[in-house]
Amino acid sequence: MINFVSENTSSKVNWQGKIVSIQPRTRVWRYLTDNRTHYHLGYNFFIEGHSSDSKKQFTVAISEKQQLKGLFRIDDILEGTAWTKKYEEREFADYYRAGSLKLLDRVNENFEVISPPCIMMPPSIQTYEERGARILSKSLWKTKCFKCIWANMANVEIQWDFDKDIKKYRFETFCYGPKSCKYYKMGRPRTVPYKNRGSALDAGYLDELCTEGRDENE
Ligand code: SF4
């Protein structure tokens, strides 16, 4: 579903819980099928725990600097503060501007599952940027791929009217993993609407362009 923007008041929360997945946090700009640009902003931590606004499962946006400092990983128990999002339609993470991060417990000192789904320390933001992404089936993102470091839920903005600079917003799933991954499924092609004309269809051609720098097994 595509939404125009509504603004909420942002408020500060405290949260605590276990990291169940770490994925890149991205913004994707779409313009018909001519352009799909991925911007890499940091990481999304998917947490099971509790927050002062009564959430038990939530997503926290974390900067690359914070991740480099803490080297956080799946199963870490963390606490911190953050702010609720201002724009429901623009930001997938429930909380952003995280602060006061504190590691409370680490059960996985050495862990690594190399074959997809890849459950390991997430790579640098530059690595995601260089690899590029392909469309990933949303149902796979929710299930088999959820813990994989290459899975991604992107904040997408669609340039709907260039002259008036009107955008529409939605969330989309992508994969930065090896093209040879046996679990990979693209799912349905994605429509990209534009004012006063039928939607264009992103059916895989942009995936080839976005990932042309690597071969099947990279
Ligand atoms: S399809 Fe992509 S996200 Fe899913 S397991 Fe394979 S590499 Fe990971």
Architecture overview:
A hairpin with a 2-residue loop joins strand 9 (190-194) and strand 10. The chain is mainly β and 218 residues long. The mean pLDDT is 93. The chain is built from 4 helices and 10 strands, in the order E-E-E-H-E-E-H-E-H-E-E-E-E-H. The protein has one domain (13-210). The chain binds iron/sulfur cluster (SF4).
Task: Name the average pLDDT.
Answer: 93
Q: Total helix count?
A: 4
Task: List low-confidence stretches.
Answer: none
Oligomeric state: single chain
Give the distinct bound molecules: iron/sulfur cluster
Distance from N terminus to C terminus (CA atoms, Å) equals 33 Å
Structural class: mainly beta
User: How would you sum up the major sheet?
Assistant: 8 strands, mixed
Radius of gyration (Å)? 18 Å
Note the beta-strand portion. 35-45%
The domain count comes to: 1
What does the overall shape look like?
globular
> How many strands in all?
10
Reading the helices and strands in chain order gives EEEHEEHEHEEEEH
Percent helix, as a range, is: 10-25%
